[in-house]
TrEMBL record:
InterPro entries reported in the protein's UniProt record: Cyt_B5-like_heme/steroid-bd, Cyt_B5-like_heme/steroid_sf, FA_desaturase_dom, Fatty_acid_desaturase
Molecular function terms, GO-annotated: oxidoreductase activity, acting on paired donors, with oxidation of a pair of donors resulting in the reduction of molecular oxygen to two molecules of water
Region ranges (Disordered): 1-22
PROSITE patterns named among the record's database cross-references: CYTOCHROME_B5_2
GO CC term, one of those recorded: membrane
Protein name stated in the entry: Cytochrome b5 heme-binding domain-containing protein
Domain Cytochrome b5 heme-binding: 29-104
Biological process per Gene Ontology, one example term: long-chain fatty acid biosynthetic process
Amino acid sequence: MCNGKPAPTALTNNAQSTDTISTNTTKKLLEVTNDELRSHNAPSDAWCAVHGKVLSITDFAARHPGGDVILLASGRDATVLFETYHPRGVSDKLVEKLQIGVMKEGEIPPSYYSWDSEFYRTLKSRVVARLDELNLSRRGSLEIWIKAAILLIWFWYSLVQMYVSPFTNAIGWCISMGAAAAFVGTCIQHDGNHGAFAQAKWLNKMAGWTQDMIGASAFTWEFQHMLGHHPYTNLLDEEEDLKKGNGVDCPIVEKDQESDPDVFSSFPIMRMHPLHEPAWYHRYQHIYAPFLFALMTIAKVFQQDYEVAMSKRLYHIDATCRYGSKWNLIRFGE
């Protein structure tokens, strides 16, 4: 699937020139550079690029079926996000309506993926067919809500008992609360922040904020998980990794562009990818990993949350697109 070139698709209809560019509806289009694209990365001024087409998503975010999660695409090439989150495709008419420009020639970043490959098209069609066959609800179900209620009762009951019980009993309730928090983080907040907990957008937001309830940050999680992990699951940017090995540094906007933070952020303590250089202690990581995972929230707060708050970045991922969001104004009182 890797060819190092941006692959053409039904959306790749750039027809660029140095003169006026227009579509079949005679709409004049801008020619946009990467620097210009990156400057439109706020909720009130949000552009993104998909297969070389520049879309304005500022107003559309309020109508987006998946909620304002679309604003995570602000100021960046969102082709991978677009493809991975829309296996059934998106109406060409909608794309044309949102389009305001095209990326200048030579400004489209090379893609790790081949969107026009027969393998990709076949895989996508089979996945969609299988989901249709199972007839599963795409957003919310009675099972999800029952599970959420059980987990929340477990968490809050354990928390209360931890405070009111004698010290020896409180230790047990502390462990119980930690286990409940882990399930809340991997179930309720995960589904909520993916927009899959319920049909109502506000319920998805509330479910997503349970990540904050257990002591972590849904704000930071969105960047690591939805902009880092999902588009590049278990991948490492080999070119960037080679440069690191040779002691060559890159501008921050080029660092780990096609890498999964879940893979590289724990190295060298944990070796999660075969390209990482093994150390003697990695042969024992299956033993010490559970103890490290128990400290994960502390590490996230003091490293990732701090980095996002101070620099508005998480690793190579620009976090500006979420600052000024009305949901975060409500949440933090900024």
